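Here is one chain, start to finish.
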Amino acid sequence: MNPLGLAWGLGKDVASGAWRFAAAWRRWGQENRAEIDQSYRDELASLKEDLEGAETEEERASIRQKMKELREEQRRFYQARRDLLLSKALVERMTPKGTITTGAPQLPASERETLRIATTLLQQLQPAIGFADHFLRGNALLEAGDFKGALLEYNAALEISPDEPTALNNRGVALLDLKRYEEALAVFNRSLELRPHDPVTLNNRAAALGRLGRYEEALTDCNRSLDLKPDDPDTLTNRGLTLAGLGRYQEALADHNRSLELRPDNADMLSSRALVLAKLGQQERAFADFARALAAKPGDPDILSDRACALSVAGQWEQSLHDLADAIAGHPPYRAQARNDPDLEPLRTHPEWGPRFWEIVGREDES
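Its structure:
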């Protein structure tokens, strides 16, 4: 599934010691460059007034330093914004959805090269030197599907400002995509301590809880998120996954249907609905959804993993193993997930196909 609820605009809760990045965070959501420039001019004018009214040389020196830092922030903010927009533009040129996994073997050489440029672009430019730089680079890498690179940037940002809730949330998203669910849960918990009523982070925490099998807790977070942000398609999909984990498949299907009404033809949502349809015995509809999903995102490991589960439920052992092997090739952390996935239990224990399953997945003590 795509990164959930990535927050591009930063809020007002600025951590102590990072005052000079606050303006950049607020400005991030503004598209009109003239408005951004005016906000910088206003702040500089205010500092100039403070300078004229300063009574001591020490006060004047402090204000001059703030003016210097504000001008430097403005320069670095535009640099980071340009880097991010250029990286996003490169990624979005690869497919209509702009979501291809690094190194996916089905990509033509030209698109693989474009992806390489997108994921390394920010590191080739001037080194990141502050919270805003690391944060924005992390967002660009997360958008490009480079979850390890994104995690490194968020770690660096949070070393500078440890209690910024949006950066914590996005770090949790990177961990979630790396299948490091316990770590992601701890990060989301911390973000929600700082910002308890954020619907995006509540939904992300629900996703981590669901992947840990803690479905009742996940359902509580999904419901809280939907109370705050009704009819959000990502949260409806996540609640559908959670309800399916609880065996409440008809309710899960209703949520998936609603999410696809709001976001038709979304590949990840089609894949999630397909797995529920398979569990309801509606195999023809399920595999039609999988076909549509893979047409939009060929070779996507998440979709292949879902289809492997559906095929296992349907008793189509050989094809299930084929999809599972391809999913692991595209994203190795699926090895650990497959060992315990309840949908793959019929395959794991099958007298003929079970041994082949373990050849593909490997034992825990061998990994």
